[in-house]
TrEMBL record:
The keyword Transmembrane does not apply. This is DNA helicase RecQ. Residues 223-368 form the Helicase C-terminal domain. Keywords: ATP-binding, DNA damage, DNA recombination, DNA repair, DNA-binding, Helicase, Hydrolase, Isomerase, Metal-binding, Nucleotide-binding, Zinc. Transmembrane segments: none annotated. PANTHER family: ATP-DEPENDENT DNA HELICASE Q1, DNA HELICASE RECQ FAMILY MEMBER. InterPro entries: DEAD/DEAH_box_helicase_dom, DNA_helicase_ATP-dep_RecQ, DNA_helicase_ATP-dep_RecQ_bac, Helicase_ATP-bd, Helicase_C-like, HRDC-like_sf, HRDC_dom, HRDC_dom_sf. One of its GO terms (cellular component) is cytoplasm. CDD domains: DEXHc_RecQ, SF2_C_RecQ.
């Protein structure tokens, strides 16, 4: 295979005529035997970075991957391209595993996916010794490399032992790949995997096709349904919730409203999880309601939206979870409903956990960065990139703040009233009680503590309950108030509140939109999102192309996108190729797929001409 160059492999096997971003540099560096660390956002084409060098170099390439589902997806996709790929994991029976080992030793397999636990077995390492002696090892690719980081949400202790690869096979090139890594995680990957001399390839973390939007919680289920109705009536997407119970309840509620929704969380038995995951991958228009247990390694390119009904734990989590939308490069939405309750419950979860204090401090800082992002009035794309240490040129026209800039107001006076009320009542009460005092409402709780006597009682009558909720939420998000977990979620002042109380600095806050004003811009925005699909949804030819893809996928028992991505179908729809040659020029149509499916799709075009 080595007589071919990277460009030829890209065109003939994968069906693309040009590399994206740093892909070509990575491929050539690895093909020549160099080590690499690749940081590339989800949907940036990480897998090509090791798949092409694996085909260019002699011998067997080993890909270490943490999830069975991910391996199966990748192997199915490679087999469709005519590449001899396989996986070795606990889902294989003993005799299947034995047969596969024979094929490996006879040189039949080019790319082998393996779980880190399997890789560490002495029997497997001996197999690699044998492979190296007879046919050679092309490279080691360590996917989802952030799993080595103990600070990450996907920590896998087995990843720490992968340095054995370099010690045992020092001449085989290694590449570690990940879609999210802030500076500390990056340093940890390099240190833990002995990649000090590896060349680093860092792509932009921007996902320009994702539209970020954060709305204030106000009956989140109805808000979610309105979002689905206006923007994603027939699309596949993921809805994230914090708890298993909420996943089950939300999925059941969506089903009762006529949506094709399935639950997914670690509390379901393995067979149900597997069944739901397969349905999500292989059928169209399914909504997966899930905890974060679902997602790592979900390689479905046409997820059109990711919705959060609860706050994620950090900016990394938010970036990684929203990044599961729009991997095909077409328009996608990241929508989140958020409120003060989220702030309180996330902080409670953090503080009541049994992690060491140092770890908790890091987690708190990460949560604070996310809260600041939620309340920010500037461009969301800029905010995400700034967090990852990257600059963004300017307004994106792809987020709520750029499309409908939020109003801000000088909340200094209100902030001082709120902080003063927290102080005067002993820094141990929650928002609801504090608001009752500020607006002068006599409740049994107010009377019980004699709080109608405090100096802040009734001083904030000019603001509504909703306005006060907003003031408290933003004071908590910006770090002027903190949640005291020992006092059942009561609020207390931080050091940063002092200058505000002393009148030494101003407080500006975002003006929460009124629900009515929100609705109009929603319709506007949904029409913009729909334009990106250029009216394809209503085109009978689009429906026919999708139906043909579904039929071919069902025959072979693979997900539809393994046949062709939506972006490929969209190009077929717009260009209407007349011959196999013309069809072969479309992105994502390599030689194997052209030979296998070309005539089927040309016939669909003919029937509609």
């Amino acid at each position: 295979m080595s007589h071919q160059n990277a460009q030829e492999v890209l065109e003939s096997i994968f069906g693309y005529n040009q590399f994206r971003g740093p892909q070509q540099d990575v491929v050539e560096h690895l093909a020549q035997g160099g080590d690499a660390l690749v940081l590339m956002p989800t949907g940036g084409g990480k897998s090509l970075c090791y798949q092409i060098p694996a085909l260019l170099r002699p011998g067997l390439a080993i890909v270490v991957s943490p999830l069975i589902a991910l391996m199966q997806n990748q192997v199915e996709a490679l087999q469709q391209l005519g590449v001899e790929a396989a996986f070795l994991n606990s889902s294989l029976q003993a005799d299947e595993a034995y047969q596969l080992q024979q094929r490996i030793l006879s040189g039949d397999i080019k790319i082998l996916y393996v779980a880190p636990e399997r890789l560490m077995l002495s029997s497997f390492l001996s197999l690699l010794d044998e492979v190296q002696a007879h046919i050679g090892l092309a490279l080691f690719a360590i996917d989802e490399a952030h799993c080595v980081s103990q600070w990450g949400h996907d920590f896998r202790p087995e990843y720490r032992q992968l340095t054995i690869l370099h010690e045992r096979f020092p001449d085989v090139p290694r590449v570690a790949l990940t879609a999210t890594a802030d500076a500390p995680t990056r340093a940890e990957i390099i240190e833990r995997l002995n990649l000090e001399h590896a060349r680093q390839f860092i792509s932009s973390f921007d996902r320009p096709n994702i539209r970020y939007r954060i709305v204030l919680k106000n009956n989140a289920r109805q808000q979610l349904e309105q979002f689905l109705e206006t923007e994603h009536p027939n699309d596949a997407g993921i809805v994230y919730c914090l708890s298993r119970r909420k996943v089950d309840e939300t999925a059941a509620w969506l089903q009762s409203r006529g949506w094709n929704a399935l639950p997914y969380h670690a509390g379901l038995d393995a067979a149900t999880r597997e069944k739901h995951q397969r349905q999500f991958l292989r059928e169209e228009g399914i909504i997966m309601v899930a905890t974060i247990a679902f997602g790592m390694g979900i390689d479905k390119p046409n997820v059109r939206f990711v919705a959060h009904l609860d706050l994620p734990k950090s900016m990394e989590s938010y970036y990684q979870e929203t990044g599961r939308a729009g991997r095909d490069g077409l328009q996608a939405n990241a929508w989140m409903a958020y409120g003060l309750g989220d702030v309180v419950s996330m902080r409670q979860m953090l503080d009541s956990g049994d992690a060491p204090e140092e770890r908790k401090r890091v987690e708190r800082q990460k949560l604070d960065a996310l809260l600041g992002f939620c309340e920010a009035t500037g461009c969301r794309h800029q905010g995400i990139l700034r967090y990852f240490g990257e600059a963004h040129p300017g307004d994106c026209a792809q987020c709520d703040n750029c499309l409908t800039p939020p109003d801000t107001w000088n909340a200094t006076e209100a902030a001082r009233m709120a902080l003063s009320c927290v102080y005067r009542t002993g820094q141990r009460f929650g928002t609801g009680h504090l608001i009752d005092i500020l607006i002068g409402k006599v409740t049994p709780q107010v009377e019980r503590f004699n709080h109608q006597q405090v100096s802040t009682f009734g001083i904030g009558k000019q603001y509504s309950v909703a306005q006060w909720s907003s003031v408290f939420r933003q004071l908590a998000a910006s770090g002027l108030l903190e949640v005291d977990i020992a006092a059942y979620g009561g609020l207390r002042l931080t050091e940063a509140a002092r200058p505000v109380l002393r009148g030494e600095c101003e407080v500006w806050q975002r003006q929460d939109p009124t629900p009515a004003g929100n609705r109009m811009s929603k319709a506007e925005r949904s029409s913009r999102a729909k334009e990106a699909f250029a009216g394809a949804q209503d085109d009978p030819l689009w429906q026919a192309l999708r139906a043909k893809r579904m039929e071919l996928a069902k025959e072979q028992g693979v997900p539809p996108y393994v046949i062709f991505h939506d972006s490929t179908l969209l190009e077929i729809l717009n260009r209407k190729p007349q011959s196999l040659t013309e069809l072969g020029q479309i992105g994502g149509v390599g030689q194997a797929k052209l030979a296998r499916y070309g005539d089927d799709f040309l016939k669909v075009l003919e029937d509609h001409a």
